[in-house]
Design a protein that fits this description.
By secondary structure, the chain is α+β, with helices and mostly antiparallel strands. It has seven helices and five strands; from the N terminus they run αααββαβββααα. The chain has two domains: 158 residues, Beta-Lactamase (2-Layer Sandwich); 64 residues.
Length: 248
C-alpha cells in the first residue's frame, strides 16, 4: 500500500508540473495572439477613419472629437485621443485616462525604442484594470501630423485567461483522478494475475515465465532435504559431535 501511495504522489506531481507548463505556454501564446489582434484592429480602425481625421486635424476640434468618439464605440476600445506632432492634445474622449498625456507617451516611446516607428503599443496597469495603449502615427503627404492614441480594455483578456486556467485545472483534476484509478486497478489486476500464476507454478502447472523460478525452488527444496537427511544420519547435535566436527 505504501508503494502505491508513493507512486500516486509521484504521478500527481508529474501531472501537476505538466499542467503548469501547459498553462504557461498556452497563456503566453494566447496573450501574444490577443496583442497581435489588437494591433491589427488598431491599424484597421485608424485606416478606416484616416480621411476624417486628416480633414478635421487641427481645424475642427468638435468634428475631430466626434470621429474619435466613433472610433471608441468599438467594444474593446475604451478611449481615444489625438496628439499633435508637438505633443499637444487636440481632442480626447471622455474616458481617456489622464495618465497618458501626449508628452509622457512620447517620452516613454523614445526610451523604449531606438528608432521611431509608425505604430507602437504597451500595456499598463490602471486603477480600473489592465489596458493597452496603441499609438498610430498619422501622416499626410509625407508630413507627420501627429499620433492617434487608442486605449484597449484588457479585461476580456483577463477573463479568457481565467477561463483557460479553470479549464486546465478541471482537466488536471479529471486526468489525475482517472490516472490514479486506472493505476490502482492495473496494479491490482497485475498483482492478482502474478499471484495466480505463482500458485499454478507451485502446483506443477508453471508457465514459461515461472519455470526458472520453479526450478530454483525445487533445487532449494532438494538441498534442504539433503541437509536434513545428512543431519538425520549423524543424529542430534551434542558436545562430542561438535568437537568431532571442529577437529575435522
Amino acid at each position: 500500500m505504501l508503494r502505491a501511495v508513493r507512486f500516486l504522489v509521484v504521478l500527481l506531481a508529474g501531472l501537476a508540473v505538466l499542467a503548469l507548463g501547459g498553462y504557461w505556454q498556452l497563456t503566453s501564446k494566447t496573450r501574444a495572439w490577443f496583442e497581435s489582434d489588437l494591433q491589427l484592429r488598431t491599424r484597421l480602425v485608424v485606416a478606416s477613419a484616416r480621411q476624417s481625421l486628416i480633414s478635421h486635424w487641427s481645424v475642427d476640434g468638435d468634428r475631430l472629437l466626434s470621429t474619435l468618439a466613433d472610433i471608441a464605440r468599438d467594444e474593446r476600445i475604451m478611449a481615444a485621443a489625438a496628439c499633435s506632432d508637438a505633443d499637444r492634445l487636440l481632442a480626447a474622449t471622455e474616458a481617456f485616462p489622464g495618465e497618458f498625456s501626449c508628452s509622457s507617451v512620447r517620452v516613454r516611446m523614445k526610451e523604449e525604442l531606438a528608432l521611431p516607428l509608425q505604430d507602437w503599443a504597451f500595456t499598463a496597469e490602471l486603477p480600473d484594470g489592465r489596458v493597452r495603449l496603441s499609438v498610430s502615427a498619422l501622416n499626410h503627404k509625407r508630413t507627420r501630423l501627429g499620433s492617434v492614441l487608442l486605449v484597449h480594455d484588457l479585461s476580456f483578456m483577463d477573463r479568457r485567461e481565467a477561463t483557460t486556467r479553470n479549464l486546465l485545472l478541471g482537466g488536471f483534476f479529471v486526468l489525475a483522478l482517472s490516472a490514479s484509478v486506472f493505476t490502482l486497478v492495473a496494479a491490482r489486476v497485475a498483482w492478482r494475475g502474478w499471484t495466480l500464476e505463482l500458485r499454478r507454478a507451485l502446483s506443477g502447472r508453471a508457465s514459461a515465465e515461472f519455470r526458472p523460478l520453479v526450478r530454483d525452488v525445487r533445487s532449494l527444496v532438494e538441498r534442504l532435504a539433503d541437509e536434513r537427511k545428512h543431519e538425520a544420519n549423524y543424529g542430534a547435535w551434542s558436545s562430542s559431535r561438535l568437537r568431532e566436527t571442529l577437529v575435522q
